[in-house]
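The records we work with from here on pair a chain with its fold. Taken together, the C-alpha cells spell out the fold as the letters spell out the chain. The record below shows the convention in full.
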Amino acid sequence: MTTSIRALQGQEMLDALYALNQYSLHASPPFGDKEEWDAVVRQRQGVSCHAMFEGDQPISIAAATAMTQNLRGALFPAAGVWGVSTQPQVRRQGTCRQVIASLLKSARENQKAFTNLYPFSESFYERMGYVAFPLTKIVRFAPAALQPLLKLETGGAIELHLIGDGFDAYREYLTAMRLTCHGMGFFDVGDRAAANRNRQWMALAKFGDQVEGLMLYSNQGDEPTRFKFFATRFYYQTSRARYLLLNWIARHIDQCDRAEIWLPAGEYPETWQADLQIQIEAPPRPAMCRVLDVEKIGGMNVGPGSFSAQISDPLCPWNEGTWLFEAHLGSLRVSRTSQPDCRLTIQGLSALISGTHDPQDFSLRDWGDPTPELQVLLRQMFPRLLPFMHEYF
C-alpha cells in the first residue's frame, strides 16, 4: 500500500498522536483517558507534527515544540522533538527516520537552528546527528544530615507558592538563568495548564526583593514523618541562596526521612555539607542535541581562530558542503567556502559546539579527521563546556 508523509493539525493530530504514543510509549492495555490526554496536549503551543500514513492509517509520527536555547552564550531558536512512535509492523524499516527528516525540514523552514530530544535509544538518534549531553544527577540523602544548617543565618527568606500561583515568577527566573547557562533550553510557551494542577511547591530564595534561587518540590508518601522530600528543580545564583534552600529542606526533618534532588551534571553536592552521605544516580536517558542549520549558528561566543570543514549530514542535506567558521570580535561567523581544512560529520560539529567531546575523539567516533594541529585550534575556539538542558520532554 502507498505511504505518504504530511503535517497534522488540530483534532487529527491529537487522534494520531494519542493512538501511536499510547501504544509505543505507555503500558497497555488499557490506553489512558483520551479526553484528559487531549486536554493536556491541546494546551501546548508552537507544536509541529508530521506523520506517515499507509492509506488513511497513521503508522509513524513525531512532534516538535518551539524552544529557545543558549549555546555558548547566544540564544537560538530550537525545536524540542517528542512523541516519536511507530507501529510495530513497520519498525526497523526506516519509517521513523523519514518522519523525523520531514519534521526537521519543517523546523528548519521555521528558522530553527538547533534541535533537541530525549532518546528511546541513544545510538538510533546518534546516527541521525544527535550527541548526548551529560546526565542529570539524582541525589539522595537523609534530611537529618542538614540539621546543622538550622542555625545558619543567610539573611534571606523563603517565599513559598504553589507552582500554578507562582508560574510567572518561575518562568521569569528561568528566562534570566538561560542567559548564562550553556545548553539550557525551554519551551517558548510554558505549560501553564500542567502548572495549574498544583502538584509542586515552589520555594523562592529571596534576599530583599531579589530572587537568587528557586526549588520545585513535593512531599511524597502515605505516612507523616516518613515522607520523601522530592525536588525536581534546584537552582541558585549565589552560595547564600543554595544554603537558604538547603535550610528549607532541613526544616522538614520531622516530616521527611529522605530527600531526593535532581541537579545539573556540574553540581557537586557531596561538598555542600559534612556527613551528608549522599547517594548519586542518574536517569536512564540524557538530553541530546544537534545542529539543525549550520548557516544559522553564527553569533555564539568563541575563542580566536578560523577553520573550514566539509560537513556531512545525510538527514539534513542543506548542511552538506564546505563551511568556514571564523571568530570576529569573539563571535562566530559562518559562511560557505570551497577549501576544507578537515572533514566533520554533523555529530562532530554538534559535539564541538555543545562542548561534550574533545576534538581528538572525532576520528575514534568516525565524526571527522582534524589533524593534531587543527585540534589545538578547535579547542581554542570551542573550549570544553558542560551543557545543561533544563527541560524534560
In short: The first strand starts at residue 3 and ends at 8. DSSP finds ten helices and 19 strands in the chain. The domain at 137-163+199-281 is CATH 3.40.630.30 (Aminopeptidase).
